[in-house]
Amino acid sequence: MTARVLVVDDQTVVREGLILLLGLLPGIEVAGSAGDGEAALRLVEAERPDVVLMDLRMPRMDGVEATRRIRAAHPDTQVVVLTTYSDDESVFAALQAGARGFLTKSADADEIARAIATVMRGDAQLDPAVQRRLLDTISGPRGEAGRSKNDLPDGLTRREAQVLHLIAQGRSNAQIAADLVVSEATVKTHINNLFAKIGVRDRAQAVTYAYRHGLAET
Question: Which range of residues forms the domain containing residue 141?
Answer without folding.
Answer: 136-212
